[in-house]
């Protein structure tokens, strides 16, 4: 792929970090973006088809795999896959019981889904960086596309739109559980009467704007931190794989140790996203 401009390593990097974008361009109408500039000009409603495709596909893989194991589960000698799934379910279940201090039938399945889905999206980072983009280029050429204009990212969590979308879903659940546990009045009181309070009503009234500002920042920081932490770690990991791919003959000796280390990173980031979700939802149901 670097052959499109063999003298430019920066072109190679930018090409691998650009999404396959479909949207409406003010001058060219509906279609695929042929450059990062065109993708930007398409605006907010443009779709990253590679991110959407891989995230939905990996989500379906998780659902179908666990459904298959659930239907074939036996009380006799379990298969290796059943053993693995049971260990994973027990691990997530114990994490929820230790961290979530409320009562909800949603939290455990949600946590299991988050961990497995984020892990599957992260693990795409271990696929050789040129393999799937080059395959996409060949398919694009079959349909008459210029290979230099075919972009294809295979790691959904290196797209801030994907990580922010997941974190905003968690944020919506935080608001829902807070209002369900404390009511609208309790939610408003939590936002306006903490952390500063006073028995004097006049002084307390003066504290309300300050409390509202601080609590709003704290509340909004939760989804932002969730999204940026996952995106930053996976984006950096993907960028290192791309840089390793530029070194030619030294690619394999450098790729293998980084891939081994990155297995820990992708697992840890899935675990952190899951645990922070449980913690934030537990904080939402706790009554002060």
UniProtKB/TrEMBL annotation:
Database matches in CDD domains: ATP-synt_Fo_a_6
Subcellular location: Cell membrane; Membrane
Membrane-topology descriptor: Multi-pass membrane protein
Segments crossing the lipid bilayer: 44-66, 106-124, 160-179, 230-252, 258-281
Any Pfam family matching the protein: ATP-synt_A
Molecular function terms from GO: proton-transporting ATP synthase activity, rotational mechanism
Biological-process GO terms, alphabetical: proton motive force-driven plasma membrane ATP synthesis
Keywords: ATP synthesis, Cell membrane, CF(0), Hydrogen ion transport, Ion transport, Membrane, Transmembrane, Transmembrane helix, Transport
Chief localization: membrane
Entry GO terms, CC: plasma membrane; proton-transporting ATP synthase complex
Top-level taxon in the UniProt lineage: Bacteria
Family: Belongs to the ATPase A chain family.
Free-text function comment from the UniProt entry: Key component of the proton channel; it plays a direct role in the translocation of protons across the membrane.
Cross-referenced PANTHER family: ATP SYNTHASE SUBUNIT A, CHLOROPLASTIC
Protein name: ATP synthase subunit a
Annotated organism of origin: Halomonas halmophila
Gene that produces this protein: atpB
């Amino acid at each position: 792929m670097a052959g499109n401009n063999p003298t430019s390593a920066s072109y190679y990097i930018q090409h691998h970090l650009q999404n396959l974008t479909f949207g409406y361009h003010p001058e060219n109408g509906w279609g695929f973006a042929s450059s990062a500039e065109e993708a930007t000009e398409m605006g907010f409603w443009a779709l990253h088809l590679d991110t959407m495709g891989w995230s939905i596909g990996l989500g379906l893989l998780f659902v179908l795999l666990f459904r298959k194991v659930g239907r074939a589960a036996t009380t006799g000698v379990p298969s290796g896959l059943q053993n693995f799934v049971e260990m994973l379910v027990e691990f997530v279940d114990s994490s929820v019981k230790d961290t979530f201090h409320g009562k909800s039938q949603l939290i455990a399945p949600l946590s299991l889904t988050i961990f497995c889905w984020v892990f599957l999206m992260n693990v795409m980072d271990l696929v050789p960086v040129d393999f799937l983009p080059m395959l996409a280029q060949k398919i694009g050429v079959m349909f008459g596309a210029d290979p230099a204009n075919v972009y294809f990212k295979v790691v959904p969590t290196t797209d801030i739109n994907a990580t922010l979308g997941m974190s905003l879903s968690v944020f919506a659940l935080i608001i829902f559980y807070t209002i369900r546990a404390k009511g609208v009045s309790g939610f408003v009181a939590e936002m306006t009467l903490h952390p500063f309070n006073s028995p004097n009503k006049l002084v307390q009234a003066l504290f309300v704007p300050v409390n509202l500002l601080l609590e709003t920042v704290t509340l909004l920081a939760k989804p932002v931190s969730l999204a940026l932490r996952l995106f930053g770690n996976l984006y950096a990991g993907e960028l290192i794989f791309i840089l390793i791919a530029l070194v030619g003959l030294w690619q394999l000796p450098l790729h293998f140790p980084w891939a081994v280390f990155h297995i820990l990173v992708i697992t840890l980031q899935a675990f952190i996203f899951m645990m922070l979700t449980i913690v934030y939802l537990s904080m939402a149901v706790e009554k002060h």
